[in-house]
Amino acid sequence: MAATALAAATVMAMVVASAMEGAAQSARPPEEQPEHYPEGAHREDTFYFCTACHSFKLVAAQGMSRDRWNDTLDFMVSRHKMPDVQGQDREKILDYLSSAFPERREPRGWQSPFAPK
Ligand code: HEC
Questions:
Q1: Measured from the CB, is residue 62 less than 6 Å from ligand 1?
Q2: Which of 47, 69, 75, 82 has the most ligand 1 atoms within 8 A of CB, as the residue to mutate?
């Protein structure tokens, strides 16, 4: 009997949690899912953090070094009022971004003289 009540409470909690999740993520296109993007550690965390404001396509269109992803986060904070995420959470986001969307090399080995070193 107690076990049944516990199970029912657990199911309720899950329903409420998923409903809240849905409301918080209304900014991204409903068809967009973390699974659409390259697999990697912290993919879900990064996806939901960034898609609070815009489609993850905007993110996935980029390819940058970890340093430049870090600058991008600063830019999101100063320019677009993104919550300033620091410490471990920031490391997680940078881990995912720099491994899933690394700096792209020119295919024929050509390097722009203007590219930041
Ligand atoms: C608080 C809102 C907010 C959050 C959270 C946010 N961004 Fe943005 N971001 C914006 C806005 C606003 C734009 C400009 C949107 C546009 O051009 O349509 C933007 C644009 C961008 C661009 C395109 C920049 C360009 O010059 O074209 C990139 C890349 C980007 N964001 C990365 C990220 C990443 C990575 C995250 C998660 C770590 C993130 N953003 C989270 C608000 C946010």
A1: yes
A2: 82
